[in-house]
Amino acid sequence: MKNMTIYLLGILSAFLFFYGFFPISTRSNNINNIPPSKINNVSLKQHYFYNQSTFKKTVLIVIDALRLDFVDTKYMPLTTNLLQENGCSNEIKVEIPTVTLPRIKALTVGNIPQFIDLVLNLASTESLSDSIIHSAYENGKNIVFYGDDTWLKLFPNKFSRHEGVSSFFVRDFTEVDLNVTRNVHAELKNDDWDIMILHYLGLDHIGHVYGPFSSLVPTKLNEMDNIIHTVFEKLSSKGEEVLLMVTGDHGMKDSGGHGGSTYSETHVPLVIVGHHCENTFLSQSDIPVNLAVLMGVKIPSSSIGKVHRKLLQTNEDKYLYDLYYNSIILQQKESCCHDLFDEASSHYIKYLNNNTDSISTLKAIELYEKFLEKINDNLANGSIKQKLSSLFIALSVLLNVIVIIYSQILSKQNKKYLLFQKIVMLAIIVVQFNIPEHLLVFSVMISILIIILFSNIYFLIPFNFHLTFSYLNFFIFISILHPLTFISSSYVEEEHQYWYFFNTLFIFFNCVTFSKMKSKYDILTTVVCLAMFRFLRRMNSTGDKWAMYPDLSGWLLKDENYFYYQLLFLVGLVSVLVAQYVLLLPKRPWFIHFISIATLCLIFIYKQRETSVTLGRIVWFLVFVQLIMTYNSSKIIPWILIATLLLKPYNVILVPYCVLCSLYFSKHLSSTQDMVLYHTILANMLYFTQGHSNSLASVDVSVGYIGLSEYQPIFVIAQVLCHIQTFPVLCHLLIFNNKHIKQGEVWNVLFCNKLYVYLVTCIVTFLFRHHLFIWSVFAPKLFIEFVHILFLCIEYLLVQICAMAHISIGLNNFLYRTKIVFFKKPTVY
Fold first, then answer.
1. At what angle do helices 418-434 and 439-460 cross, to 10 degrees?
2. Whose CA is closest to 433, among 7, 20, 11, 1?
3. Residue 265, C-beta contacts closer than 8 angstroms, at least 6 positions apart
4. Torsion angle of the four alpha carbons 79, 84, 86, 90, in this order, in degrees rounded to the nearest 10
5. Helix, strand or coil, per DSSP, at residue 18
């Protein structure tokens, strides 16, 4: 408990950098978006150019995770036939993060949502105040909606009829779409609506569970193809002008899931049927602008998109008006390029005064398009503002915290004079969170932190290093080198290779050492560990460059290999049971072993379909029973059961492998520091072997809904985080399972290591904040490292709470026994 203050400073400074770095919108919403009626006192035919839509019905179909390559004659023949008759197929560039909530915002508002929206994608969502939906609603159009209930949270009270479906039960591939289609058939008989929006989720769910190459994908695409064809044919058969638009909110990674920046995640189709247009390339933020023009409603004031002539296919008069309208909205948001705007407007006025001046027409169109291109780029790049003072303060405090923790690892004592420094640093963080940027205040605070840093280095850090080969120095070298590799974006994307290499090197080094000692048992064990690792690393393809290549998990998921899939799962469960027995030892009560066996059997049954809410809850109940029964001992057995429940069946075998490596190699490690650093390497290696990467697309959200009958954000996020942290937590528990380790020193090494990795990640991210890959590579890595630190802090707090509860129970038992002794009546003989 004595180091809680310094750990608190570490997490606060980590959050300060996170808070200062990630995008915060700085654009004003006080934008006039009323269609113009004049330009420099020259009248415009507003009502003629911007009247009611020529389309009687407008239908927008969003198919979640619809990749660009899914719309072709093979998967969607009916849709491609409609395109050839009257329509176009456009390629849409989607900004990251490629998750649903920010993509819906981009589709309806026309701006670039913030990176932090990916957190809101799992939590609650706020309603929007400006969008194409608001424009249509204010124009008196009746809108009906069916699909992902995120729309209902973003646009409350804007739909005359609606029915939302939950997007979070990712193993529902059929009912979630049938509920939407059922309403579609009813609405096709009604004539009182103007706009119908549909958001289908089944394809996305298949991608999360089985990936884009599953046999279920063609069937689902064929279902969507039939729906698109039915909607257009039935509406157009009434003799009405119908505008049908089909797009995806984001794509799907080759290995399944989404959230990252690969081509298949960031490029989706925009299919337009019922409107003569040409195929083109545009940004997702351009869709609301062009849709507003086509429907004859106001362009959203928050939009940064631009109109496209190939998409609109209007005459020069109308297109010039649309360009001018689009331009006056954007020029209110950005001070650049006014010369281009003024020159274009002067040519437009010349054209209005002389309709036969074709040169002015072409010049005006050219200049307006050039203006929109430039200002759009400026708005896209400058839509965020980072608080640089927060970044520097956070880095300075982080560095001080790491120096202090490192000094405690070396000296093993708490310096009392550090109390004043902690109070000063805490005060600086509080001030930085609560005041706007001010150069003088920032200069004073950063100067104080630099003075504290140099004094800590001088007084606390000894400089008598001895470079001798040992396990500890080997582990320290690996730990120091690790984050320094992040200077290369490729090393961030392929970080798993780093841990695979050094884990293999460590095992091989031990094998050579034991061969010299002629220890056959040790040689055999290391060879088994090496061979098992070679098998397990082929289980899941991860990283960026090779994630799409075949792996064992993909092979096991094929229907013809179902027997081997179940066989590996059973071997994993039996191995887990053996590992638990070894950890528990036979001395433990028989009913603890019985509960473990019963829980594993229920997990096996549950994993056959993973749709039984009741069975999932029973498993969680048995896990909590184990937690209660082990209140005064290690929580490693309950955590192993949690891991077995949350992991994919083919990944369960990783749990006994982790226990085997820990129990075996721990015997050859002498110090607490050796133990902690080795288990850190083991945890990182297994984290990537599990299938994770530094892309948010690798996060498996499907595990968040075990035992839930309705969406509950706290439980969903908790289960997803537990799945992510499966092996880091397991390795920490295995460390504490060793009786000779010192708990305080363990936490010091863990926090020092994690904060050091986070510090270097922050520095690299800051240096590359203008890099091409900042939002696709470095920012996700920073986000992931922050989650690791946050979870480590939660771990620490839970351990301290359990320790205090154990002490409290022990104290109560002691007082109770003392009371009996003192107040017991004396025996009379």
1. 160
2. 20
3. 94, 98, 250, 251, 252, 253, 258, 259, 697
4. 70
5. helix
Every domain of the chain and the residues it spans: 63-313, 314-384, 471-554+562-736
Tell me the per-residue pLDDT of 276-326, one tens digit each, with 9 for 90 and over: 899 999 999 999 999 999 998 999 988 889 999 999 988 888 899 899 999
Region at 542 (left for phi over 0; alpha for psi -120 to 50; beta for the rest): beta
Short-list 265, 260, 261, 230, CA closest to 244: 230
Q: Which residues of 455-480 are buried (b: 16+ CB within 10 A; e: fewer)?
A: ebeeebeeeeeeeeeebbebbeebbe
SS3 60: strand
Q: Report the pLDDT value the prediction gives residue 724, as an integer from 0 to 100.
A: 94
Q: At what angle do helices 636-646 and 590-606 cross, to 10 degrees?
A: 10
3-class SS of residue 198: strand
CA distance 148 to 165: 5
Whether 374 has a pLDDT exceeding 60, the answer reads yes
Residue 829 pLDDT: 39
Q: Which of 415, 534, 568, 492 is nearest to 768 (CA)?
A: 492
- Strand residues in 254-405 grouped as ranges (E): 267-273, 281-283
Contact indicator for 204, 221 with CB cutoff of 8 Å? no
In this predicted structure, the answer to whether residue 50 has a pLDDT above a threshold of 60 is yes
Distance, in Å, from the CA atom of 389 to the CA atom of 537, rounded to the nearest integer, reads 43
Q: Which residues pair with 384 in a beta bridge?
A: 25
Q: Is the peptide bond between 113 and the residue preceding it cis, with omega within 30 degrees of 0?
A: no
Whether residue 234 contacts residue 276, with contact meaning beta carbons closer than 8 Å, is answered with no
Single-letter amino acid, residue 430:
V
Helical spans, DSSP H, in 461-612: 471-484, 489-493, 495-517, 520-536, 552-556, 562-584, 590-606
CA nearest neighbour of 646 among 593, 575, 718, 711: 718
Condensed to tens digits (0 to 9), the pLDDT of residues 457-487 reads 887 777 766 666 688 888 999 999 999 999 9
Model-wide pTM > 0.70 = yes
Helices (H), 552-612: 552-556, 562-584, 590-606
The 3-state secondary structure of 714-779, one letter per residue: HHHHHHHHHHHCHHHHHHHHHHHCCCCCCHHHHHHHHHHHHHHHHHHHHHHHHHCCCCCCHHHHHH
Q: Which residue has the tokens 């309806």?
A: 108
Q: Could you read off the pLDDT of 198-252 as tens digits, one per residue?
A: 999 999 999 888 889 888 999 999 999 999 999 999 999 888 889 999 999 999 9
Instruction: Tell me how far apart the alpha carbons of residues 121 and 277 are, in angstroms, rounded to a whole number.
Output: 34
CATH code for the domain defined by 63-313 = 3.40.720.10
Torsion-angle region of residue 282: left (phi > 0), alpha (psi -120 to 50) or beta? Answer: beta
CA distance 304 to 376: 6
How far CA 281 is from CA of 135, 260, 290, 472, in Å, comes to 25, 21, 13, 55
pLDDT higher than threshold 80 for residue 185:
yes
